[in-house]
Design brief:
mainly alpha, 84% helix
Length: 131
């Protein structure tokens, strides 16, 4: 019975879970500055943030297209994030700086929520909530 409650309430929680991916944009900014330069990187991050905000709003209104987009983004992000976690666990020094430990914790939280998101977004009962 608890799983039914989770499946029924998941579409309500998904827009709030999607907020975790704003952290990706913060970590992407220094790399984008290195590749694109400051003005282009700032513009790119502003555009991505605006698009992700619109995406989160559409998830709140249970748009089917955005459910599929979110599923694709979560799958790609999971595949890109997992090597960082494995690298931190197996190949890291004994004492990590605070910022690397924080990044590891955020990665683990995002990976765990991604697993639940992938599983639940492909469930028939959750799909039925989106139009």
């Amino acid at each position: 019975m608890k799983i039914d409650f989770l499946i029924e309430s998941f579409p309500l929680w998904l827009p709030y879970i999607a907020v975790l991916y704003y952290i990706d944009l913060l970590f992407l900014l220094p790399r984008a500055i290195f590749i694109l330069g400051k003005p282009a990187a700032a513009l790119a991050i502003i555009i991505f943030t605006a698009l992700w905000t619109l995406h989160s709003i559409a998830l709140y209104y249970r748009n089917e297209t955005n459910r599929k987009i979110h599923l694709i983004v979560v799958n790609i992000d999971f595949a890109l994030r997992l090597p960082f976690v494995i690298n931190f666990i197996f190949f890291h020094k004994s004492h990590a700086p605070w910022y690397e430990a924080l990044f590891f914790i955020l990665n683990v939280i995002t990976l765990i929520t991604a697993l639940f998101t992938i599983y639940l977004l492909t469930d028939k009962r959750v799909k039925a909530n989106y139009s």
